Amino acid sequence: MRGLAVLLALLPGPALAHASERMVILTLPTGWYMVGAGVAVLLTALVGLDARLLPRFAAHQIFERPRLVPRALAGWLSAAAFLGLVAVGLFGTRDPLENLLPLTVWTLLWVGLTLACVLFGNLWRDIEPWSAPARALRRLFGINRGIGLSRLGHWPAVAGYLGFAWFEIVSLAPADPAVLARVAAGYYFVIVALAVAEGEDWLDRGEFLTVYFGFVAKIAPLWAEPAGDRLRIFAGLPGAQVLRLAPLSLSAGAFVTLVLASVSFDGLTETFWWLARLGINPLEFPGRSAVLGVNSLALPLFWLLSAALILGAIRAGLPAGRFRDAAGPMMLAFLPIAAGYHVAHYLIALLTNGQYAVAALNDPFGRGWQLLGLSEHWVSFGFLATRAGVRMIWIAQFATILGAHLLAVLIGMKLSERIAGGHSLRAHLPMTALMVGYTVFGLWLLSTPAVG
Amino acid sequence: MTGRPFTTTPTRRTILKGMAGAGALAAVPRFVQAQSSEPIRIGFQLHRTGIGASYGRWYERTASAALKVLNEAGGINGRPVEILFEDDGTDPKRGAEVVEKLTTQSNCDLVMGTLFSHVVIGSAPRAGELKVPYLVCSEGHHVASGMLNRWTLQPGITDVKSQVQGMAPFVSSNLGKKVTMIFPDFAFGHDHRDFFTAAMAAQGGEVIQQIAIPPTETSFTRYFPQIPSDTEVIYHVMVGPAVLTFVKELGEFYGSGARPQLFGFIDSLEAVDINSPGLEFLDGSHFWEGHPRYKQADASEHETFYRDAVGVDDNGASVSDPADIATYAHMFSTWETLFVIKHAMEAAGYTGPADRQKIVEAIEAMTGFEEGQAHPQGPKVFNGKTHQAFGLQSITKVEGGKLVRVHQTSMEDGFYPDEVDYTTMSF
User: Fold this and answer.
1) pLDDT tens digit sequence for B379-408
2) In A, which residues are within 8 Å of B244 by CB distance?
3) Partner-chain contact B184 A387, CB within 8 Å
4) Which of B163, B262, B298, B372 is the most buried (most CB within 10 A)?
């Protein structure tokens, strides 16, 4: 009955849409922003047909420094911290917004670290908790061969990511500290076992978090490249690293499309539009249990549809027979979109749940401590109810989505120069249409009425 | 925070240690003593995530503040009290699991706090099977309608039928006799439609048009021509993200010309600043409020105490952020329910889970609550047969960017004939 008065705040498990924000955003002229963004993408594509106007995407080394913490030590510290967090998940407070495990996984890592990697390169490499234990165990057991897992390419990571996306977007209680602790610990030990059996280098291809952070970090304008015990720090236009990557294999391409599709799907399933398709009244959204089955089915279908659209657009523009050579390189152009969607989609979660994360560090055991000097009611969401606050968030999301697509168009243009017959109006037309569509779709997801 | 134990269940080891330390012969009385000074454990089914989360945030804050006050005053029967908050995702399936977990794994003495109707309706049967008192803060009519069971009670907040019915005398004698209702086309809106239409007729007024808006609608202009020109009052209960748009478009429809009186339920704008962009048109309009968001000129000392304890300023916002508006009209229910639990446990001489039935019987024996620190929203009448509280409702008017009380209903305005007698049902 009443109950449903609400719709004010809607957190889907880990992520957090916020309806008071949607309330305000519905009063903003978001339609014009969408039109403007679509036109900007289109114009960029047209201008980019003149190859001389495309940026060079050069990379410059700005300095070199020694490693501050040896990688093995950092890895062991991470592994210890992870297991400590699992203990907090199992034995700490049951409140998902006070327990450090869900806050760390869903807010600090999944949202915060993604943003950090998009800006500063692959920071995950330094805190990844598998390599150090796997290397030590291999040495201990005298294992120096693999079991052939590497032959599977990125497919294990694709499977891992699909499972993860289902857990986050569809499953009943991904933020429940005990549920998350068991799932995370289970996954951790499976990966340790596989890395011991195959060798820790396999993680770069087979473990989805390592693959994921590795890919989104390729967008960063600043990044480090290891050189022995030292690190070389580079700077360049976002995308400079992407253009230096080898073409994506089929499994790596599948991974990129999955990342892109899953974030869009997360946004889509919260919209009134989607719920109306399912015959569910969004004003009395019955909770995840009511959509578990249909969303479990729709997630992989949505992925397949997205992948088909992308591959179809690449194929439609090319002369017959060129597709096989073109798909691998052209898929790289979707890396900025995948990263940009992620940042825009989770921005509000970062601003809201991020506060809970800071508050949890302020009082990690719920004992009324104020380690960071924060007051009792420090967590506050007032900015989501003001026009100024919501406009600022919308503009940040708009800039992220638009910037990601412009970058994708430019990278696509640069990549197509490598393909015979690839850099022409005819070749770019389907891709450009797709990019325009994706830009508008991404902005629509962020501004249409939605629940949690 | 008080009552937020780091571990949620006493381990077998701590109990055994207590026994061993007391020595074999002395163990029994010492253990009984230790048992009775053990904390009372109250399970709180919290909408921490899901669509109820903005309510959940304030329900948790209010309940925690009440707990602090309760413990500082000596707890219950001299025993300290803990609240164990457990997230239900605002999902009925998880809700039932949460009731079970709090009862069987966390050994809570009872469960309280649920707001959303579908979660209450999904969880109450489990509470009945587990024979654990389930005290909801939902304002739904499902308790008093007889839909639930002996173990489910709502002593901390009035139900929507009583609230809606209580508005009719004021509306018909002060705002107008001819009412057009605009409501979302689902159960929540239908309750308003049915209860208010009947109550208006009883007052000699008339609902001359009922405009049901599809729940997914985000633009409303095309519905407004259905408002009859002789409408004296528009009764609106729109909810959801399109509320600001609704008000803005209604304002554009009437322009600066004459318009009917407006009467709404604050549920539309709970946790939303009344001065939000687009709401200018509401100036001079009236609202139902379960508990006035803005501190009134004649506020009681208890009201002031309650605001301070929860950390809410005179405008109904968090003391730490003037833009962070509380779910003020409803959240008092968790505070008041906690104190009802205290009184019930003390009246029943509650010692442990074996006495759970006595809690229900003690609450059923209650007839009402005086206004006071335990009941800052005001006095209540409690109907033990229907398990439902009745109270005073406020009608406030938007004046100068604030909601100012212009009327308070009488207790009788909200009464209606009993629809169930839970006391005749077995436990």
Assistant:
1) 999 999 999 999 999 999 999 999 999 999
2) 23-24, 26-27
3) no
4) B163
Per the DSSP assignment, residues forming a β-bridge with B289 are B394
Give the distance from residue B216's alpha carbon to the nearest chain A alpha carbon, in angstroms. Answer: 6
A426: confidence class by pLDDT, cuts 50, 70, 90: confident
A13 within 8 A of A175, measured Cβ to Cβ = yes
CB pairs under 8 A between A and B: 241
**Mutate which of B49, B265, B279 to disrupt the A interface (most A C-beta within 10 Å)?**
B49
Q: Three-class SS of residue A383?
A: helix
Can you tell me the ipTM of this complex? 0.86
Predicted pLDDT of residue B96: 97
Q: Are A335 and A215 in contact (CB under 8 A)?
A: yes
Residue-wise pLDDT for A209-262, tens only, equals: 999 999 999 999 999 998 888 999 999 999 999 999 999 999 999 999 999 999
pLDDT score of A368 more than 90: no
Tokens of A34: 């969408």
Q: Specify the residue for token string 């991404």.
A: A442
| Nearest chain A Cα distance for residue B320, angstroms | 6
A1/A301 Cα distance (integer angstroms): 34
Rounded Cα distance between B143 and A375, Å, is: 38
Helix (H) and strand (E) counts in chain A: 19, 3
Tell me whether residues B52 and A6 touch, CB distance under 8 A: yes
Say what the pLDDT of residue B178 is. Answer: 97
Q: Write the DSSP string, A97-125.
A: TT-HHHIIIIIIIIIIIHHHHHHH---HH
- Under 8 Å between Cβ of A348 and A17: yes
| Residues of chain B positioned with their CB less than 8 A from the CB of A376 | 311
- From chain B, the residues in CB contact with A170 under 8 A are none
Q: Measured between CB atoms, which of A10, A94, A273 is closest to B85?
A: A94
Structure tokens at A55: 């940026």
Nearest of A134, A136, A55 to residue A407 by alpha carbon: A55
Per-residue pLDDT tens digits for A260-303: 999 999 999 999 999 999 999 998 888 999 999 999 999 999 99
Order of strands across the sheet that contains B206-213:
B206-213, B178-184, B233-236, B261-265, B286-289, B394-399, B402-408
From residue B383, give the alpha-carbon distance in Å to each of B366, B376, B416, B423: 8, 19, 11, 11
Q: Do B53 and A283 touch (CB under 8 A)?
A: no
B36: pLDDT confidence band, cut at 50, 70 and 90?
A: low
User: 3-class SS at A417?
Assistant: coil
What average pLDDT score do residues B185-203 get?
A: 94
Alpha helices (runs of H) in B53-116, residue ranges in sequence order? 53-72, 92-100
pLDDT mean across residues, chain B: 90
The pLDDT score that the predictor gives to residue A19 is: 56
Answer whether A125's CB lies under 8 Å from A226's CB. no
Question: Which chain B residue lies closest to A381 (C-alpha atoms)?
Answer: B324
DSSP string, A297-322: HHHHHHHHHHHHHHHHHHHHHSPTT-
State the residue for tokens 């009440």: B66
pLDDT at A432: 93
The strand pairing partners of B79, in sequence order, are B76
**pLDDT above 50 for B25:** no
Helix (H, G, I), strand (E, B) or coil at A35: helix
Question: Checking DSSP bridges between strand B394-399 and strand B286-289, what pairing results, if any?
Answer: antiparallel
How far does the CA of residue A371 sit from the closest CA of chain B (Å)?
14
- Predicted pLDDT of residue A15: 35
